[in-house]
Amino acid sequence: AVSRITILIWSLHPMIAGRIFIWSRDEDEVKSYAPSYENLERPAFRDSPLQHVADGLGGVRQKLDTNPDEFQFPIMGDLREQGATDYVAMPLPFSDGRTNVMTLVSDHPKGFTTANLGLVFECSALISRLFEVFALTSNATTLLETYLGKRTGARVLGGKIRRGDGDNIDAAILFCDLRHSTRLETELGREAYLALLNRFFETTTEIVNAHDGEVLKFIGDAVLAIFPASSGRAHACKQAMESATEIVRGLGEPADDTEGPALECAIGVAFGEVTYGNVGSRERLDFTVIGSAANIAARLGEHGKVNGYAVVASDDVASEAGLSTVPLGTVELHNVSKPVTAHALELSLP
C-alpha cells in the first residue's frame, strides 16, 4: 500500500543543509538530492510537512480522499491528484537532538490502517539509528574537510590523530597575506570587512585547489597553503607560482561592484622538506607544516610587502617554475639564519 517514502536527514555542511532520499514504487532506484540552505527558505519547503516535523511540531497524518480545503499543506493536493489516498510524516530523532523526517504515501483505497502505522512506528527507532550511523561518518568527513581540507581531513579520519603523527614531505609552501587589512576594517566597518575577508579566503582557496594544492589554515588575514611534490619538484613549484599569479589577479579584479574594492596581497613561495602532521598539546592538536620552508615563505611575503612586490619566491622555486621573474639578489629575512636568493614575479604592487 506504500507508494512513496521520503526521508530527510540533516547534515553538518557549510553549503548543504541535508540529504533527501525518495523511494517510489514506480522507480527502479532510490533518488537523492542535497538541498542548499537557500532551498530551505523557499515556500515549497517552508510550507511543507518536512519543515513542520523538523521544527518539533509533531507528526502529520492526513487522509487525502477528503475535502481538499481541509489540507494543511500544498503538497497534499498534488499527491491527491496523483492518486494518493493517505499521507503520514513522522520524526526520526538522532541522538544529537536533531529531528529528521520520514514521510509515507499510500494509494490504497483505504489508506493506512492503524496496524500499518503501528508497525512503522515500531520500526522508526531502528530506521533512525541506521541512518544516524551513515550520517555520523558523512558528517565527520565533511567537518574534517571543512576545517582541515580534503587531503589533511582524510589523514586525520584515517587515524593520524596523535601528537607527533606525521610525515616528512617535500612541498612548495605558499603564504599569502592580505595588505592594508587594518585600514580596510576601519574604513568599511566590521561586517563589510568580514565579507571582504571571506572573498579573500574564497578566491585564494579556489585557486589553490585548482592547482593541486591545499589550504592548510587561515591565520588572521593570511593563508598558508602547500603543494606536495608527489608529481615532482618542478610540478609543485610551477603550480604554486601559477596559483600566486592568479590570486593576485583574481583579488585585484572583482567580478562586479557588489564584491567590494580590489584587494592587494603579498605572497611568498618557498620549497623544501617539511613535517606534515600533528603538533600541539595532548588534548588540543593542530595539523600543520613545520620546517624552514614554511618560515621562509612567510618571510619572503613580508619582504615583498615592504618592497612593493606582489609575489616573491626563493631561487629554486623561481627556476623550477619557469615564469618571468625579476632577480632580487640575496636578501636577509627576519628569523632566517642564512640569506636567501629571491626573485619577484613581474607583478608589482602600487
Order of helices and strands: EEEHHEHEEHHEHHEEHEEHEHEE
Please estimate the helix content.
25-40%
Number of helices: 10
Number of domain modules:
2
Q: Note the beta-strand portion.
A: 25-35%
Describe the protein's architecture and organization:
The chain has 350 residues and is of the alpha+beta class. It folds into two domains: 2-148, Beta-Lactamase; 160-345, 2-Layer Sandwich (Alpha-Beta Plaits), CATH 3.30.70.1230. The protein has ten helices and 14 strands. The chain has helices spanning 43-46, 49-54, 74-81, 114-148, 150-157, 181-188, 190-210, 233-252, 292-307, 315-321; strands at residues 2-10, 18-24, 31-33, 60-63, 86-93, 99-106, 166-178, 214-219, 222-228, 265-280, 285-290, 311-314, 325-331, 340-345. Strands 7, 8, 9, 10, 11, 12, 13 and 14 form an eight-stranded mixed sheet that branches. A six-stranded antiparallel sheet has the order 3-2-1-6-5-4. β8 and β9 form a beta hairpin. α4 (114-148) crosses α5 (150-157). The longest helix has 35 residues, at 114-148. The chain is elongated, with a radius of gyration of 27 Å. The termini are far apart.
Summarize this structure as a short list of keywords or feature phrases.
350 residues; alpha+beta; Beta-Lactamase; Alpha-Beta Plaits; 2 domains; 8-stranded mixed sheet; 6-stranded antiparallel sheet; 10 helices; 14 strands
